[in-house]
Specification:
This protein has four helices and no strands. By secondary structure, the chain is mainly alpha-helical. The protein has one domain. 28% of the residues are buried. The model has no long low-confidence stretch (mean pLDDT 97). This is DUF1772 domain-containing protein. Keywords: Membrane, Transmembrane, Transmembrane helix.
């Protein structure tokens, strides 16, 4: 793949991740948080079934392009590349260590856990946005 195509794939994967995370933060989780207790179990189960494959594809793509860029950076600027990789790693780590386990504990609606999940999600959103901006910066 030539340099221009690689840069487009790199920035595109980071932008996709950020766009996905913004959608989850500002659309998906507020809608889920608004579900009353009597409908929670079914709504949460449906959410998990629908979003898990998307999470896997989007996060795997972002991690893969960052790993490839770190191994073969080409003409990507090193500091923004490192920031992009760190942001992607932070979002992935927050998902694996906090958001995923919180979802496992939310079989029944627990307002405190929902608030904690939303906080973790905002941090993931910030990390993904920083990664996307740094990705653009790395090719500028």
């Amino acid at each position: 793949m030539d340099g221009d195509a690689w840069r487009a794939v790199f920035v595109g994967a980071l932008a996709l991740h950020a766009g996905f995370q913004v959608t989850v933060t500002f659309v998906v989780y507020p809608a889920l948080a608004a579900v009353p207790a009597d409908g929670w179990r079914a709504a949460h189960a449906a959410h998990a079934r629908r979003i898990t494959p998307v999470v896997v594809v989007v996060y795997a793509g972002a991690v893969a392009v960052c790993a490839a860029a770190l191994v073969h950076p080409g003409d990507l600027a090193p500091v923004p590349l490192a920031v992009a990789a760190a942001g992607t790693l932070a979002a992935t780590g927050l998902t694996a260590t906090l958001a995923g386990p919180l979802h496992s504990r939310l079989q029944d609606r627990d307002p405190a856990l929902v608030r904690r999940l939303q906080l973790v999600d905002r941090l993931r959103c910030l990390a993904a946005a920083v990664a996307a901006v740094a990705g653009v910066w790395s090719v500028a």
